Amino acid sequence: MSVDFQASLFEGSRVGVGPLAGRVQRTELSRGAWVDLLPGWFEGADQVFEDLVARVPWRAEKRPMYDGVVDVPRLLHTYGTGDPLPHPALVEAREALSAHYAPELGEPFVTAGCCYYRDGRDSVAWHGDDLGRGRTVDTMVAIVSFGSPRKLQLRPVGGQLAVSHALGHGDLVVMGGSCQRTWEHAVPKTARPVGPRISVQFRPRNVF
Ligand SMILES: O=C(O)CCC(=O)C(=O)O
Ligand SMILES: [Fe+2]
């Protein structure tokens, strides 16, 4: 096999992220919250999706509800600070996000939460990522989406649904400013026949 042929093979199957600067579109919400969007940030998102399905040690969680326990309707795994990530493209993504947002955020993204929505019955209810510092200070949560598009909805705390983004294959969304404490987000269930979706959320230290 010639070197040229090998190079063209690699070119056609590049997996990784594109540039962020000048491409991310910011929408100011109210109360000091904002959302950045970059559709199609990932190249080779198909391959990343396949690899994540196979490599992430997905687990089902249960949580207490009334006098019993119910299944959390999605599969999960969180990579903590320093844990090796399951795909080099995720390392590339985390480094690119940390570099791009450093002037505003002042610290790197360090954890990667992974969620696997198997079909339209899997979902996450309205919440803010406010169990850690997100409850009291401005921060950022960057989400990359793979697989079937699903809606990410946003509303001000105590208010009506205000923003809905169909997050597609390889898309980036970053929630910033006061978003985790003044706004809530959700991925609603859908009766439409949808395929599986994986979401990877990059967060700074002690944001979850
Ligand atoms: O699936 C998503 O994009 C959102 C997940 C989310 O909000 C969370 O896990 O905190
Ligand atoms: Fe969240």
Automatic annotation (TrEMBL):
One of its GO terms (biological process) is DNA alkylation repair. Coiled coil: none annotated. One of its GO terms (molecular function) is dioxygenase activity. Keywords: Dioxygenase, Oxidoreductase. Transmembrane segments: none annotated. InterPro entries: AlkB-like, AlkB-like_sf, ALKBH3, Oxoglu/Fe-dep_dioxygenase_dom. Residues 108-206 form the Fe2OG dioxygenase domain. It holds the Pfam family 2OG-FeII_Oxy_2. PANTHER family: ALPHA-KETOGLUTARATE-DEPENDENT DIOXYGENASE ALKB HOMOLOG 3 (PTHR31212). This is Alkylated DNA repair dioxygenase AlkB. It comes from Nocardioides aurantiacus.
